[in-house]
Design a protein that fits this description.
215 residues; mainly alpha; 2 strands; 13 helices; two-stranded antiparallel ribbon; 2 domains; globular; Endonuclease III, domain 1; Endonuclease Iii, domain 2
């Protein structure tokens, strides 16, 4: 639990928290219960808070999981997961580890920002998203993923995530993949456990890929 202005927010910290949310969702919609039978226990999906974690999320923008992992390995190998090192690095240094020009600009903007990482814990979900999106190159998806994984927010959902959109299309038997606006409308029903709904849909997406033999 963290105290916010005027209220206390629930933080997902343990597997038991995820299980509680998953049980709530399964009771809400039997299709979620079916997914849980297929996937088993959902991952906690928690990361550390701070510059390195947010930089990692930036690296994961608009690339496959495998590509993000490969690039992040190179980033860490040369110490570019440390804020002071990114401040000192040239654009060529950042490009050499596989960052696109837009991610180079974002990384430099992030490293040069005065973002108070500890202060984010005491903001509302909406204000966390707004604060992060002030930084050049950080959009709603990056801010929502960071709030979910690094801050452990219970009710944050990355509505623009393509995997979540595709999993929702399949699970709810939609004719077309929902866009970000449609996902926001769908996810309202899953509050206050939208972050666990995201974990569940990511697990379902992975299950779909594995069944197709596409790892």
């Amino acid at each position: 639990m963290y105290g916010l202005v005027g209220r206390t927010v629930r933080i997902i910290e343990t597997d038991a928290d995820v299980e509680e949310g998953a049980a709530w969702l399964a009771a809400l919609d039997p299709r979620f219960a079916v997914v849980l039978e297929q996937t088993g226990q959902l991952p906690l999906r928690r990361r550390e808070n701070g510059f390195g974690a947010l930089m990692n999320t930036v690296v994961g923008q608009q690339v496959s999981k495998a590509s993000a992992l490969a690039i992040w390995k190179r980033v860490k190998a040369v110490g570019l997961d440390i804020q002071a090192n990114v401040v000192a690095a040239s654009e060529l240094d950042l490009q050499s580890v596989g960052l696109s020009q837009s991610k180079v600009r974002c990384s430099k903007a992030l490293a040069g920002s005065l973002l108070n990482y500890s202060g984010l814990y005491h903001m509302t979900d909406d204000n966390v998203i707004k604060e992060l999106c002030k930084i050049v190159g950080i959009g709603t998806w990056t801010a929502e993923v960071y709030a979910l994984a690094s801050l452990g927010r219970q009710d944050v959902f990355p509505h623009g995530d393509l995997a979540l959109q595709e999993a929702s299309r399949a699970l709810f038997e939609l004719d077309v993949r929902p866009d970000e606006k449609q996902m926001r409308m769908m996810a309202v029903e899953w509050s206050p456990w939208r972050a666990v709904a995201a974990r569940l849909l990511w697990a379902y997406y992975s299950s779909m890929k594995n069944k197709k033999g596409n790892f």
